[in-house]
Amino acid sequence: MNTEEDTQGLRKILDFTRLISLFILAIHFYISCYQAFEHWGWTAALTDRVVLNIAKTGLFTGMFKAKLAALLFLCISLLGLKGKKDEKIQRNSIVAYLASGLLVYLVSVLVFYLPCNVPVVAALYIALSVCGYLLVLTGGTWLSRLIKNNLQADVFNSENETFPQEERLLENEHSFNLPTVYNLKGKTRDGWINCVNPYRSVLVAGSGGAGKTYFVIRHIMDQQIKKGFSMFIYDFKFDDLTRMAYNKLLKYQDNYKVKPAFYIINFEDLNRTHRCNPLDPGSMEDIADAAEASRTNMLKIDISQIGESGDTFFSASDSAYLVFLVIGIVGYFTVPNVANYIVHAGGGNAILQKVNSLVVGGGRSAMNATGAAGGMAADAMGNAYRKMRGGEVSDGNDYMKDKIAGGKNG
Question: What's the CA gap between 18 and 141, in Å, rounded?
């Protein structure tokens, strides 16, 4: 960081360099125009001896050597000059001052060929040389005040607001990397967005047509499938992402230690879909799992009602009825079987009446029932009846496990 003392020291050095330039130019004038100075009475014996000793250095032989040395020291003094920036100063003006100054400064030696007396020639030579010197000094000073960035061409200062971005490719076995192109000081450069830990979750947000799939999703799919990951993809615009994922899987299937399978669940086109069972007995261990699966499937019937009525949209009797169908009557852990029973039972109010009668009857008959039938009635129907009435519910795990085991084995 530049301190005030450093700035003042630099300024003194620049001023001293400029004084050296003026001193060399003054000695040059005294030697080259000595007859005119003698005519004006501006000479002295002491001055002559000092100038004579300086002239022995060889710097003042000829007309151009001393002038070029003075010009060199002037340019050195202008290198470290920091002037106040001015938007009105233009490059053309600076070039005009420097070019005209150099021309007048160097061509002034032609004055000695004029058919005039010595004092007039000397005065013209000194005047033209000083004029050229001042023009060069002015042009150099303005050069330090020139604003390099054209503010009129960048009124919003966009170029100065650019900054360096990550250009390294940082990869690991879990990462995904998105290629980028950015602008830095008017130059287009390539970069990378490195997500080295995607397990911390990634949110991709944007309006329709913003390019989420093109710039982000397709790169993630390509790189993660290439690295041997499994994927669960929700294809809103079927079959765009599905086709892409399938082609990538065919391309990189040799990267997997275990050859992966490709499944599609399509509720709109049943000719192009695999089948799944949301009531799979393998996912149920007790009656609580069956109740949760039943409740989840019922909520999916009309998902819009959840926002209006919350989780209480479906009554306890509805959930108990579906559990009853799954484990008590139908005996098959599939949605079509349950739906088929509901349809053939009459639907609507008829269903509710039949269920209520079955549940109540089962609960009463379970009082004296024994064996597997009693366990089924007590667990499936009696518990549902008690639950709806607010009573205690007995443990139905034994029957549920037997039923599941039967479903698995059957």
Answer: 13
Report how far Cα 288 is from the mean position of its chain's Cα atoms: 47
| Residue owning tokens 């009696």 | 382
- Six-digit token string for 159: 């170029």
Q: Give residues with Cβ within 8 angstroms of 35, minimum separation 6.
A: 118, 122
Say if CB 167 and CB 187 are below 8 A apart.
no
* pLDDT at 84 (0 to 100): 63
DSSP annotation of 176: E
Domain ranges of the chain: 4-145, 157-201, 203-272, 281-409
Least Cα distance to 185 among 162, 165, 167, 154 occurs for: 162
Instruction: Split the chain (410 residues) into runs of 10 and give each run's mean pLDDT.
Output: 71 89 92 90 89 86 89 86 66 87 92 90 93 91 66 69 93 94 91 94 90 93 94 90 94 91 90 82 74 70 58 56 59 61 53 50 39 38 43 46 48
| DSSP one-letter code for 325 | I
Threshold 0.85, pTM exceeds: no
Euclidean distance between CA atoms 37 and 65, whole angstroms: 21
Q: Tell me how far CA of residue 10 lies from CA of 14, 78, 81, 223, 304, in angstroms.
A: 6, 12, 9, 57, 76
Q: What is the rounded distance in angstroms from the CA atom of residue 329 to the CA atom of residue 376?
A: 9
Q: How far is CA 235 from the centre of its chain?
A: 25
The DSSP 8-state label assigned to residue 215 in this structure reads I
293-299: long-range contacts at Cβ-Cβ below 8 A with a sequence spacing of 24 or more? 293/326, 294/319, 294/322, 294/323, 294/326, 295/319, 295/322, 297/322, 297/335, 298/322
- Total length of the chain: 410
The answer to whether the beta carbons of residues 60 and 27 sit under 8 Å apart is yes
CA distances from 52 to 61, 63, 69, 109, 193 (A): 12, 16, 18, 22, 73
* CA dihedral sign, ordered 301, 304, 308, 311: positive
